[in-house]
């Protein structure tokens, strides 16, 4: 079964449109004497007779003032030879209306027959009979629901399913949609295909798709595009804000030819549009048949073109003649009015008005007579140039009914496979098909259809195999397998759809098809299959990384593995670190190291990515809840990646181009700090920061589930983009740094570190440790200006190594750091101390502490803690000796 939605007439008022539609459904013979009604009915009405039901539908539709026409018209068609009973029609209408969500609405329907295919017209009023409001289903995409309904009707009543049907009822009763095949060639829309079916001539859109799409895809310049299209009789022209592809003088929308043929996408690829040279010659195209070698088609199409050319010429001549007659009458009437009105009519007003009335009546009669004459002339023109018959009718008129039948059933013609030798046909075991010897041929039918009157799937004729059920992929595959057994290599002949299917099957199963025109398609299909197999073999983690990396667009990625110890400590390992240097991995290297990363995950370690780029900042916004994430996006920031690092907790990566100034590093740090203070973790600092790797588990102990498993880090969003708003913010920050640098240049002063002697005396082990490390670090600096913030971070890490906790480090920095500055820096020292101490205990601090652990005893001695440790060790040894059992005397 197939279903179509008939568009409503735009020229008619909805009242007239509904009445005409209802009358046509019940009484089609008034418009087409050959169309008969087999069954008709209505539902949802108070009255039983047709006229009353029609007026009820008009009245209810009138309640929807804003809708131009709330009545939808659908046509359901059965296959040739299928005829539903009245009970099946009622059931089909019920299923259809229920699937579309209009179960209780008004409907008028009729089963018609005017061809070998029986079809059901159904008009449904979308206005609900009780609420008086229009019920809109699936946001207006009701044709999709109509296809679902057709699948349910086929299943419920046992009708044969269309080979290319969108939906099919599965074994569990649910609807399954046929998978979308991106490799399937584009087709013209239904209206153009209907015209092709009537005339046998390819539409301009089909020609553009077949001959123009490849040229448009492969063009490397506008000049090449125009030149190659012109050689095929086509033009690509800018029209308004879009583009049109002309085949001869017929234009089609460029994006209908190929999704990448729109003006915007072509300009993105080839640059600003350049028109074709004015003198470029465009080849002339003759009309082309959709099926080659149709007997009599050239005579038919020549006669059709001549008929409509004469019709159009006669119409133009008639219009010109009638316009001249209207103009001539208007001039004559004006001259007569001027002549009668000439003279002095002063004081004769009543007579003047009477004269005007008489003249107006006479001239109105003359206009009416002329209008009636013109209407008769147009009717004569219509009778003279009746619609030209379609190809099937024309062949019957030419006394060739067999050719008409051949054209009508051309889609059912068997496709062919031809071998090199004439090996006699013998029955063979071919999958699910049963062979039957019929004369000098072997007929193969599906085992499932045996005994049920099923048709023949394919026929072995010796030198060739005819495939009758060629639209069925299994039948074509079985016929190709038989051909491979018989001949090894062979040629396929038939339509393009069949050949494309054979090329795919040859690539999948290794058949040797010798058609030269199919070799490129077979090779491309083989490459596609290999790529799909390679993709299927990839791990889910690698697939997620590829999506993530495509969105982030970093040059390299550092991979960090952190293992949580039982005592809460972290053990950090950077996969690419060698001789103290880490550069990160390329995406290709990540793919190679994925098995190693998976092993680390299985060992219970947490995995992190750090995107690294010379020309971009990749800003991590950490520790967001859903509300903060939505606010970030609502405020205009555009993350390239959004991760759910743990249930209800999110991370976002924003990509921002670096500005290429000396302040890039500081700008990135400030940008990260500002965004995390507003939306994420206010404690996070630094533009280069690791984040959890998507596809791997978050193995923090607090996230462990009752069953012992851990949540996976989910990649919620991945879209390659650079954030415009973040770029504007980084530009503001850079401008501030530039301003400060300019002021500093005007008053040059070197911020030199104060000598240690100037430090105020202080008490407390942490403060004393800070001062000792401060003096030691300064000794190791070699001249020039000292970055005191860097000195403080070094001291914080040192103090962590020697056993000071974060709070003690923060307190020491808060008290001592201001005294080391030459002048007041206007800092928030509380915040500065918090961030510096937090850095010592961050992931970066973890790595530094692990690397610097070998200096622990040296720094403890620097802090003056070594003698204390020795005393404690001696005391412990004495206690151990005293408690050990002595020798008895």
TrEMBL record:
| Compositional bias of kind Low complexity | 274-284
Pfam families in the cross-refs: LPD7 (PF18821), Relaxase (PF03432), RepB_primase (PF16793), RepB_primase_C (PF22448), TraI_middle (PF22863)
Leader sequence residues: none
Which residue ranges does the record assign to the Large polyvalent protein-associated domain?
444-526
Q: What positions belong to coiled-coil segments?
A: 515-542
What residue stretches are annotated with the TraI-like middle domain?
Answer: 190-276
Q: Does the keyword Coiled coil apply?
A: yes
| Ranges of residues in domain MobA/VirD2-like nuclease | 24-159
Domain (RepB/MobA-like C-terminal) ranges:
786-840
Keyword terms: Coiled coil
Q: Is Coiled coil among the key words of this record?
A: yes
Q: Which Gene3D superfamilies match?
A: 1.10.1240.50, RepB DNA-primase, N-terminal domain
Q: Residue ranges under compositional bias (Basic and acidic residues)?
A: 180-202, 405-416
Highest taxon of source: Bacteria
Q: Where is the RepB-like DNA primase domain?
A: 550-740
TM ranges are none
Q: Which InterPro entries match?
A: Endonuclease_MobA/VirD2, LPD7, RepB-like_DNA_primase_dom, RepB/MobA-like_C, TraI/MobA_relaxases, TraI_M
Location of region: Disordered: 171-202, 271-295, 321-340, 396-429, 680-708, 863-889
What is the protein name stated in its UniProt record?
Answer: Plasmid and phage DNA primase
State the organism named in the record: Tepidicella xavieri
Name the lineage: Bacteria, Pseudomonadati, Pseudomonadota, Betaproteobacteria, Burkholderiales
């Amino acid at each position: 079964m197939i279903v179509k939605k008939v568009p409503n007439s735009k020229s008619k008022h909805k009242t007239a449109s509904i009445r005409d539609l209802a009358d046509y459904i019940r009484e089609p013979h008034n418009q087409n004497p050959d169309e008969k009604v087999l069954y008709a009915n209505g539902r949802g009405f108070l009255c039983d007779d047709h006229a009353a039901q029609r007026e009820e539908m008009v009245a209810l539709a009138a309640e929807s003032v804003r809708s131009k026409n709330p009545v939808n018209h659908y046509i359901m068609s059965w296959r040739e030879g299928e005829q539903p009973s009245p009970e099946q029609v009622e059931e089909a209408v019920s299923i259809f209306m229920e699937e579309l969500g209009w179960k209780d609405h008004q409907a008028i329907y009729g089963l018609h027959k005017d061809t070998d295919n029986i079809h059901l017209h159904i008009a449904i009023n979308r206005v609900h009979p009780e609420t008086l409001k229009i019920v809109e289903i699936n946001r207006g995409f009701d044709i999709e629901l109509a296809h679902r309904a057709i699948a349910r009707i086929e299943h419920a009543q046992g009708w044969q399913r269309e080979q290319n049907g969108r939906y099919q009822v599965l074994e569990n009763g649910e609807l399954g949609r046929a998978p979308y095949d991106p490799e399937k060639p584009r087709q013209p829309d239904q209206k153009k295909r209907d015209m092709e079916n009537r005339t046998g001539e390819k539409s301009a859109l089909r020609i553009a798709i077949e001959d123009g799409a490849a040229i448009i895809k492969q063009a490397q310049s506008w000049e090449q595009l125009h030149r190659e299209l012109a050689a095929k009789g086509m033009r690509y022209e800018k029209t308004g804000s879009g583009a049109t592809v002309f085949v001869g003088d017929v234009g089609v929308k460029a994006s209908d030819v190929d999704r990448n043929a729109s003006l915007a996408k072509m300009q993105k690829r080839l640059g600003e549009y350049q028109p074709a040279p004015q003198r470029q010659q465009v080849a002339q195209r003759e009309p082309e048949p959709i099926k080659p070698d149709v007997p009599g088609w050239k005579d038919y199409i020549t006669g059709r073109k001549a008929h409509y050319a004469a019709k159009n010429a006669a119409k133009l001549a008639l219009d010109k003649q009638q316009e001249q007659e209207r103009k001539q009458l208007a001039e004559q009437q004006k001259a007569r009015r001027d002549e009668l009105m000439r003279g002095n009519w002063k004081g004769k007003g009543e007579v003047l008005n009477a004269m005007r009335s008489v003249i107006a009546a006479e001239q109105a009669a003359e206009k009416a007579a002329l209008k009636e004459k013109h209407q008769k002339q147009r009717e004569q023109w219509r009778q003279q140039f009746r619609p030209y018959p379609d190809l099937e009718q024309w062949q019957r008129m030419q006394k060739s009914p067999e050719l008409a039948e051949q054209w009508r059933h051309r889609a059912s013609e068997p496709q062919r496979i031809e071998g090199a030798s004439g090996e006699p046909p013998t029955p063979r075991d071919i999958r699910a098909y049963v062979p039957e010897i019929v004369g000098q041929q072997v007929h193969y039918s599906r085992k499932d259809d045996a005994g049920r009157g099923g048709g023949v799937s394919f026929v072995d004729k010796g030198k060739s195999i005819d495939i009758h059920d060629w639209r069925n992929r299994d039948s074509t595959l079985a016929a190709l397998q038989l051909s491979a057994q018989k001949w090894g290599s062979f040629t396929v002949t038939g339509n393009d759809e069949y050949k494309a299917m054979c090329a795919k099957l040859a690539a999948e199963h290794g058949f040797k098809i010798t058609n030269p025109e199919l070799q490129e398609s077979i090779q491309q299909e083989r490459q596609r299959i290999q790529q799909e197999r390679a993709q299927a073999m990839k791990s889910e983690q690698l697939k997620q990384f590829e999506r993530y990396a495509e969105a982030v667009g970093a040059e390299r990625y550092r991979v960090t593995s952190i293992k949580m110890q039982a005592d809460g400590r972290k053990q950090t390992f950077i996969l690419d670190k060698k001789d103290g240097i880490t550069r990160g991995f390329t995406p290709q290297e990540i793919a190679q190291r994925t098995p190693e990363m998976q092993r680390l995950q299985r060992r219970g370690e947490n995995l992190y990515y750090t995107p690294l780029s010379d020309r971009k900042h990749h800003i991590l916004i950490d520790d967001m809840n859903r509300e903060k994430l939505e606010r970030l996006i609502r405020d205009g920031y555009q993350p390239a990646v959004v991760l759910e690092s743990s249930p209800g907790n999110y991370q976002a990566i924003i990509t921002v181009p670096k500005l290429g100034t000396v302040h890039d590093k500081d700008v990135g740090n400030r940008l990260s700090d500002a965004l995390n203070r507003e939306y994420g973790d206010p404690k996070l600092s630094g533009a280069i920061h690791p984040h959890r790797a998507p596809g791997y588990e978050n193995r923090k102990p607090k996230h462990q589930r009752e069953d012992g498993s851990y949540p996976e880090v989910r990649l919620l969003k991945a879209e390659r983009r650079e954030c415009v708003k973040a770029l504007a913010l980084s530009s503001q920050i850079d401008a501030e740094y530039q301003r400060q640098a300019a002021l500093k240049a005007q008053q040059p002063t070197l911020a030199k570190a104060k000598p240690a002697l100037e430090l105020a005396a202080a008490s407390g082990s942490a403060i004393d440790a800070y001062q000792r490390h401060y003096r030691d670090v300064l000794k190791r600096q070699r001249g020039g200006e000292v970055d005191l913030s860097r000195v403080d971070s070094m001291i914080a890490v040192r103090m962590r190594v020697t056993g000071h906790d974060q709070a003690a480090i923060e307190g020491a920095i808060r008290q001592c750091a201001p005294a080391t500055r030459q002048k007041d820096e206007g800092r928030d020292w509380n915040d500065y101390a918090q961030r510096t101490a937090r850095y010592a205990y961050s992931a970066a601090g973890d790595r530094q502490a692990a690397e610097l652990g070998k200096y622990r005893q040296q720094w403890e001695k620097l802090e003056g803690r070594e003698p204390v440790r020795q005393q404690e060790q001696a005391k412990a040894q004495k206690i151990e000796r005293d408690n050990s059992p002595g020798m008895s005397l």
